[in-house]
Amino acid sequence: MTKYSEMAANLRSQIESDRYKPGDKLPTTSELCTQFGVSKITVRRAMDELEREGLISRRRGSGTFVTGPQPSAQTSSFISSCPSPFPADVLEPNELSYTTVHEFSVIYPSARQAKDLHIESGLFVYSLCRTHTKNSEVQVVEYTAIPMNLCDSLRESDAERSLMRKLAESDGLRIASVHQVIEAVHPPEQAAQLLGIGQTASVLRVRQVAYLEGGRPCASFVTYHAPDYVFYNISSK
Amino acid sequence: MGSYAYQVIVDDLVSKISSGVYPVGSKLPTIESFCDEFDVSKITVRRAMDDLASMGLVSRQRGSGTFVKSRPMGRSDRKLGWNLSNEMHGFATECVIRGMVPTEVVNSFTQIVPPSEIAQALALASGERCHRMDRTLLADDVVCMVEVSYIPVQLAPDLTARDGEQSLFAYLQRTSGQRIASSYRRLKATLPSEELALRLGTSTDEPVLQFHQTSYLENGRPIEDSVALHAPGYEFYTVTQMCS
Q1: Which domain holds residue B150?
Q2: pTM for the full model?
């Protein structure tokens, strides 16, 4: 093996073993020359190879950095959908803040629900309509669909608390990610009634699908929010 | 953006997932077979998988493999608006990525001492001035949004209206010598005023999404605070990874 590819292999395995993590700054060219006992040209060739592979990024004036998604980026993404993609998770139930179940049934999914949940339309889903009240005001109207074959013991009393926690605790289903599509819409009749507003109002509608590790969808939601509801989001590179 | 090996892998897999070569729900080939196919190291393949996971396209299950979770949202899936994932691109780049032609029209451009909440968001000293640029942004000649941006004069002393007609995002990165690294957004549903409804080509009773966005440079310094109103039909798409 040539000197530079030996050096590249060495650095590559250090990056692989997290000795250098994404965002870390690598030693300078002269430091690497000394460390590996090679010439500047060898260092540069090794860096070229690693840069071509997308493992490092050289920024003039700043140095050489290991590329890759930084842990903080993922964390802030979770914190961002403030406070949580699941309204019922946030509420500390008390007199002023609580979840009310308006509908709880087992039905065939709509075409859209079947598509989002990757199930056939002949399989049953739990279908729920709930409202989440905070400080005595209804903030969110939530329509949820959960495939019955994922959780066979869902009760109406479970629906008054965090469904996601229930699924995690008694069914071992852990949500790994949530996809959300947010739009501004007129609320449909029932949602408008539950929110106590007219149908000419402008509200946020969020369509979400929650996925388990491994990519299997486990729940789909459509939520309508009170008119002054603010949705937070953070993007970072 | 250079032609990194892992970028090539990402692009290749995105197109294969999109076209159904790797259908939703299917398990992707192993890391080793991708190493052979693309002639790269394991860690390069793993980086590509990281990207695909953060785009929401695949899901990794320890011990079982990597599964295709969903298809990338294509332009054909949407009406007028498009999808903005957890990425940092300016409007012009978002257009180009989707094969659309961006146009940015500057309606007004002044320097002012901004209202206190904007001064605060931009970490300006009292009495410090900022640019105020009001623009209409179009994609393929259809109005997408109306946006008012505030930028500290100190960070972009030579900014002109002309610069607002190209990519403001790219200009700010060039001038500051840093990337715009993060963005804090607040989304609300609202109804447009008469003037804005006219500019957006809609009516005052059509719901629209309002974005209040503050963007930060790599060193954490705020570079822009903007409020934008999107044309009706716009959808904002986001993927949240839950921490375990």
Answers
A1: 75-230
A2: 0.71
